[in-house]
Amino acid sequence: MSIFNKALASIGIGSARVDTRLEETKVSPGGKINGVVHIYGGSLEQDIDEIYLSIHTTYVKEANDKKYSASAVVDSFRINSPITIKPSQTKEIPFSFMLPADVPITIGRTKIWVTTGLDIKNAVDPTDKDYLQVVPNPLMEAVLNEVENLGFRLREADCEQAPYKLRRRLPFVQEFEFVPVMGAYRGKLDELELIFAPLSAAEMQILLQVDRRARGLGGLLAEAMQMDESNVSLTVSTKDIPQLKQKLKSVIDRYC
Question: Which domain of life is it from (predicted)?
């Protein structure tokens, strides 16, 4: 093994390469991901201390009255013990992991991707990036559908920095912003914001912010002071799906 080859590997030339292939790219929060990591040896033998997978997204963060995009690691996994890859050798390492229940769904500007990395001493660590399509699980989908059935339309969905009171495992929450376009709430509400907070695979807390439309001088003053917004939460499970519309309506009606 020449010093020249070592020097090249230290800057990524002739080093091992990695390519992750996922069996499926469409998955729901809490769903299972299967795949295989393919490692291709370079021009010299290398010791790989660790192969790791990490799930990433971005969210809107605010500092000094300015908003900017920040990245976040939703979860990470180590999938192997140290291995040695010989020159031109190919190794395949299968893996399986569960997507966290609180991973955002891919809607609007939200993107989710899996990064694979090889930890190799004295070399540039090779990486690979694969995007996921994270779709709502049955309970989330039922909630979103019933909100629309109540006359709301989704205006925006984005991941934003979590207020201190709402911060849990992750530094952000995914907000769904609805506006009333028909039915009983048109003209009564400005918007309805919704946040999912999973409690288990079959149960979640829904955080709602009901924004009432200003009526008269008192309403305008309340709106200016943000006193027209009411925050409420309710817990639902898959057993509640047949009654979801009525449960959501009864909560929203309290603040109209």
Answer: Bacteria
